[in-house]
Write a structure and sequence with these properties.
heterotrimer; A mainly alpha (287); B mainly alpha (264); C alpha+beta (357); A: 287 residues; mainly alpha; MetI-like fold; C: 357 residues; alpha+beta; five-stranded antiparallel sheet; 8 helices; 36% strand; elongated
Chain lengths: 287, 264, 357
Amino acid sequence: MTPTTRTRWAILGLTGPAYLWLAGTIFLPLTAMLVLSFLDKSPLVPQPASFTLANYQAYFSKSFYWPLTRWSIELGLWVTLFCFLIGYPAAFALAKRVKGRWREAIFLLIVLPFWSNALVRVFSWTMVLRSNGIVDVAVQSVFPGAPTIDLLFSYPAVIIGLVHSYLPYMILTCYIALQAIDDSLIEAGRSLGANRFTTFYRVILPLSLPGIVSGAALIFVPVIGSFMEPRILGGTKGATLGMNIEEQFTVTANWPLGAALSFILLAIVLVIFGILYPVLRRQGGGA
Amino acid sequence: MRRLLDGGIRFYLILVLVFLYLPILVMALLAFNKSPLYGLPFEFDLVWFDALANNKRLLTAGWNSVWIALANTLIATSLGTMAAVAFGRYSFRGKTLLQALLFPPIAIPWLVIGTAMLVFFFWSGIGRGLHSILLGHVALSLPYVIFVVGARLNDYPKALEEAAATLGATPWQVFRRVSVPILAPGVVAASLFAFAVSFDQFVISYFLAPPGVTTLPVEIYTSIRKGFTPEINAISTIIIAVSMGLMLIVARFYRFGGERSGNE
Amino acid sequence: MSEVAVIGAVKRYGQVVALGGVDLTFADGEFFGLLGPSGSGKTTLLRAIAGFIDMDAGEIRVDGTDIARIPVHKRNIGMVFQNYALFPHLSVAENIAFGLDVRNVPKGEIRARVGESLDLVRLSGLEGRRPRQLSGGQQQRVALARALVTRPQVLLLDEPLSALDKHLRQEMQVELRRIQRQIGITTIFVTHDQEEALTLSDRVAIFNQGRVVQAGAPREVYERPVNRFAAGFLGEANFLQGKVVEVAGAAARVELASGGQILVPATGLSVGAPVLVALRPEKISIDPAPADAAVAPNRILGKVSAAIFSGSSLTYRVAAGDQTVIVFEQNKSRAPLAEGSAVVLDWPVADNVVVAP
């Protein structure tokens, strides 16, 4: 055996198992679901199925799905926006204003919850937001007799919970991008006569754009596919496309329709990536 | 002015941290509160942890989660490390494509992946159950493992292994005495990531769990939807403590944020 | 200690020829520098000798035995890498001991030999440090000690000093030479720093496009480059183009394309032949042109177009017709010649080196 064949076998042996696994659990299932989305009967039904476009037609013809989709996208936009508004200044402060031990500690504290259980964190908000919860009690004690505050099962509750879930992503990606900006560039900006605001607007913001964009992608994608968070915090209010897909699989057992809706969701995600990709590409990925 | 600004920045960061930790702390506090209905004043009691110890369903689900996470860690770390070594030490045609294929498991919403697995596993006869949950968790963990180990590998040049060979080390000696010790911190960090990914995973497990078989997150979700019991606070507090503890250990092995101090 | 001979070494990467048939012999105990631009094949040759590259054809003989098919770890070579490649998880002593350890040398002997090596590179007392706690120069010494402690037949150095700053680099050059002399090991090193190659080597080889352009003692290669590439790569050179107009005894008169005439050694030249002459800038004397300055062979009139002062020396760019001539001058007592001043350049006939294009 020549060394090159040996190398080839080594590469195959090393990558093979992982990619066989991914093929069997990600790529084949996605293909299977794509096929399913064109079938007229659920595989749960014993009769043979035939091909149809009805599932996709259902989505476009029934006015029922449009508000779901719109709310899913709006939810994604709101959550991304708030994550940016809260996260970017925090990332900036951390990257450019806090130094040494403190920076490391605060950074760790910020990324820590993001690796703890998402479900549990969403659930914990129910105790803060419900009537007689912490927010309510706090307001009552400052303004006795104020009307009871019950944010649970409302649109804001869903947004708050999701922002809480995904904020660390935005801080993380922006921090990495901001940290990579050489301070001398900022000094150069200022030496050229730009004031603080102009320097920020013309130098720092464009250079950290890849961080913002990758953060936005990392947040927007899971949020528009979310179903568990809106269900726990939104209750019956604010049904999302994700919730409907889940129901197709678990409650109504209309798998083909669920599969079609899943691919529509995926298409929306791809469109979003398509819009954001050039920005990431142009800036060389940032991180 | 400067001091005022610094003070403002510190205050802002503290506010962000409060936002991140407030609900978790509230939940943890209520887990130790005697009243079942968030009744204040706070009265310390371990009653919910006691109740937890007797809740068979939650305990079974908990053990399921632990075993799946352990098996997932073992499989994903081994397979992922192998692939990372191939990417880090060889250049070959198709490498970029293979690396790009690691993004779908991360970038596609879990809802889509989970339902797709449900469909495919049903069709192919693999079915639902703990085994298929494990299959799914490994798929989600693999990209993380490959990235984390790969990052470690990229920090150390191939020349280290070449140097060992010129010094007379056989390929096995090179692997054991140079590659393994250098990779170890990355592999440890990756395995903790893998554990966390699996232990926290809800969506995939939710679709792949047949009636009567659950993992902890699925069980918690079911309980929340059925109606709240304060034992959930207790178990959630334990979960949060475990996953945060794990990540603290990861942080010891693996630096986040690309910042490396001079004497490291 | 050993003689190394490379015979007919060929290596291709698809269409790219990394080694296009290289023959070189490295004498026992010789310090040999491989020079060339990046991608010229010098590093490929070094890595082929080390055993990291399988050649498509050719032999590598160490004391007559072909090692081209022997795996790296059985070759008994010592190598110092560009960024030293010290094992970050091992101490200085453990790094140096590594090669002995994997050969199962007894513990006591390892300790003694590691101690000797540390003395050799003057690092005694730093045994317990980790590589990252050492300065660049110290890391370099550890890498050298680690490569030598196994008593290899050949020492290979891959741009060993490129990561050091200028001052430290010069210091390490002296060290490297001292240690190499002391143990007398055949040493092959790759560098892109021509000055370093000239300072350190007993012989050098200049590579271009996978082939050896010229090999020889540094002075010989510098003073008698064989072609335009060798002359231009090693040091600075002026290239004068012209045609032989007369051959008289040992000298040939050449009419330059840019005007003026020069005399060159006549060897192998006949009237009418085109000639390319390499002329080192430091060989030329430059003086203010007197009012009655006349042109003569090896004597050119021109105008200073730029004068660059760099402490110990001056670099002039002199425009003579449409040819620019570069002249180096030691900074002696005379005030630098002003830009725009008329100058006369002249130099000995022997310094005109006829080179292949």
